[in-house]
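Cross-posting from the chemistry board since nobody answered there.

I work mostly on the small-molecule side, so proteins are not my area. We synthesized 2-acetamido-2-deoxy-beta-D-glucopyranose and want a rough idea of how it might sit in this target. Sequence and SMILES are below. Is it possible to get a predicted 3D structure of the two together?
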Amino acid sequence: MDYASLLFLFSCTLIDMQGISALFVTDISVPEIVDFRDNVTLSCSYDMSGHTLNSVKWYKDRLEFFRYSPLMRPVYMTFPVAGIQVLDGKYFCNESTCRVDLSLLGAKSTGTYMCEVSGDAPHFKLAAKEDNMTVAALPQSDPLIEGFNSMYRLEEFLSATCSSDYSSVPTKLTWYINGEQPMLGELQPFIDTTIPAHDYILRRQRLQVHFYLQGHRFYQVSKILELKCVAEIENYPELRRETTLSASLSHSDNLNNQMLRHPGASSAAADCRCCSWPRTSCLICSLFVIILLTQCAQRPS
Ligand SMILES: *[C@@H]1O[C@H](CO)[C@@H](O)[C@H](O)[C@H]1NC(C)=O
Ligand SMILES: *[C@@H]1O[C@H](CO)[C@@H](O)[C@H](O)[C@H]1NC(C)=O
Ligand SMILES: *[C@@H]1O[C@H](CO)[C@@H](O)[C@H](O)[C@H]1NC(C)=O
């Protein structure tokens, strides 16, 4: 073998090696979790440098459901595969990217979705990427708070229930009272309600919170009571939903308030902010104000 042919062979090998490394799928976009009522868009991008694109194929669990072959007629083809339906005309592919829209058919749409790109003759190089998609029945509404009023008085007992929307994935409910989580003893979970629907077992969770409107949580804050219920799905923070309701919070003893508003008692009221005090101190204080008021009334002005 002479020097020239050796060089030629070497160049060929180099080109071939470049060919091996040049074709690859750069990105695949498959939603991690979706609701079965939604349509989804799958897409993949590839780098063909040096190759002519022969075909792009989409598979679900190794079964081909879509093909783009720009050098053939028809350019686009779809194949029936259980669990998916390619939406009519809702696809687009070219030399660098391929996108296809699907409507889903429930739990059986869950699976591994793969995009496979092939180069043209003589190499017919292949490159692929895959990703999993879970098709679930996701909550369609924010959690529901029941039993909550728009007005409360300090010392009053409050009991409210939060319910998550029906869902095939477990939901975790968390209450917040003026931004703070309640104590364990203030919570009462109920047995989940389940219903079979759309090939799923749908579950609704309920969590009650009950407490007296007393203690530091309420004496420090102003006249607003805010109750928030958060519904979260494990591993999917983007699916978090929440509901916040607020009520006005007034002093526990209205009669006492009226007395404090009496003009003669204004100085006594200033000295004695009864209702920001714990219960017993408040009682003593109220008595003191009453005595003071009686004294004021008896005194000639
Ligand atoms: C899904 O796409 C079809 C066809 O374009 C449309 O009729 C349907 O309303 C879409 N569904 C949703 C949930 O967007
Ligand atoms: C392919 O289509 C995408 C999206 O429409 C576009 O951004 C891109 O430039 C196109 N690539 C080529 C090679 O035509
Ligand atoms: C997809 O799910 C299968 C089975 O649960 C798992 O073995 C595989 O690693 C997953 N693939 C990806 C890309 O997450």
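Reply from a structural biologist on the board:
Welcome over. Reading the output above for you: The chain has two domains: 21-136, 144-252. The two ends are 130 Å apart (CA to CA). Happy to explain the token format if needed.
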